[in-house]
Design brief:
Oligomer: single chain
Number of helices: 10
Radius of gyration: 21 Å
Distance between the termini: 49 Å
Largest sheet: 5 strands, parallel
Strand order of the largest sheet: 10-9-11-1-12
Bound molecules: 4-oxopentyl trihydrogen diphosphate, FE3-S4 cluster
Strand content: 15-25%
Length: 323
């Protein structure tokens, strides 16, 4: 599909699709909502359930208490693990406090955990491409700390030291830039020609689809606005991908009020997208803001259809009565 050309004078919005919530985020947010309904407030959540300010504030108002550590949760209370996953050490710490845990880890993150466990059992050196300090990376690395080393990107490759270059595999965080990760892998393979690939893509379908969609609109956009929070890896990657794909400029905002008039002053076409942890209401607020600034025409540019849905964690599934 080609992006329709705009008349020279028209101000328009190109709205990327897919954008916004992925299956794992939807499941995690609904898990906290359901836990609040089922057990009543408070429900404790370890870290931000997803990396979005609006989501966290809304759930906090409804009775969720966000903590950094299991130590902050009263013994015996109910604790939800965030979509980004946790290490076995965190699970053990929760069990030691007799916490009733609900695991909202995205199944696609759990899949990477299983890969790490499997390759560690085979005594591989595991090169985990991802961002040091990100919760997902801490959780995955924590499955096999003796075998995993984190590679932060292409410039980190020269620092990698392995025991046996013939027995090395790369895995990755689910929310990275596909292009940058392929460059990291290319450089790793230059150093370790026997480098093994993961059994399947670790960068998830939602991350990939949102990057493909923003690449489609970016070359025609004077400005791309990405809705997402500053700590949302996949949202920040969308800003970078938009710039690399030819957007005149690209900015991240948490909400419409953060859009600066100067960004729009000389723009004819504004691209809009959102990260996987971003509720659609925030995008619609941006669309309304742009309409008030003369960008009344909105064309959605779709590069994929998504219909994946994950079932809730088992503790929260409603039982069907027989009959
Ligand atoms: O790691 C994940 C399971 C992705 C969750 C959705 O996005 P977000 O913004 O909460 O997290 P990232 O910082 O990983 O993109
Ligand atoms: Fe899961 Fe990917 Fe979303 S790993 S939480 S489907 S961004």
């Amino acid at each position: 599909m080609t992006v329709p050309a705009a008349p020279a004078s028209a101000k328009r919005v190109l709205l990327a699709a897919p954008r916004g919530y992925c299956a794992g985020v939807d499941r995690a947010v609904v898990a906290v909502e359901t836990a609040l309904e089922k057990y009543g407030a408070p429900v404790y959540v370890r870290k931000e359930i997803v990396h979005n300010k609006h989501v966290v504030e809304t759930l906090r108002e409804r009775g969720a208490i966000f903590v950094d550590d299991t130590e902050q949760v009263p013994a015996g209370a109910r604790l939800v693990f965030s979509a980004h996953g946790v290490s076995p050490a965190v699970r053990e710490a929760a069990a030691a406090r007799s916490l009733a845990t609900i695991d909202a880890t995205c199944p696609l993150v759990s899949k990477v955990h299983r890969e790490a466990v499997r390759f560690a059992k085979g005594d591989y050196d595991i090169l985990l491409i991802g961002h040091t300090g990100h919760e997902e990376v801490e959780g995955t690395a924590g499955e096999a700390p003796e075998h995993v080393q984190v590679v932060n990107g292409p410039d980190d490759v020269d620092h990698v030291v392995v025991r046996d270059p013939a027995k090395v595999v790369w895995l990755s965080q689910t929310t990275l830039s596909v292009d940058e990760t392929m460059e990291t892998v290319r450089r790793l393979r230059e150093r370790f020609p026997s480098l093994q690939d993961p059994p399947s893509d670790d960068i998830c379908y939602a991350t990939q689809n949102r990057q493909v969609a923003v690449k489609k609109i970016a070359p025609d956009a004077d400005v791309v606005i990405v809705v997402g929070s500053a700590n949302s890896s996949n949202s920040v990657r969308l800003v970078e991908v938009a710039r690399q794909a030819g957007a005149g400029a690209a900015y991240r905002v948490d909400r419409a009020a953060e859009i600066e008039d100067g960004w729009l002053a000389d723009a004819g076409t504004v691209g809009v997208t959102s990260g996987a942890s971003v509720p659609e209401i925030l995008v619609q607020d941006v669309i309304a803001h742009l309409a008030r600034h003369g960008f009344a025409s909105v064309e959605e540019v779709s590069t994929a259809a998504e219909d994946l849905v994950f079932s809730l964690p088992p503790e929260l599934r409603t039982r069907r009565t027989a009959g």
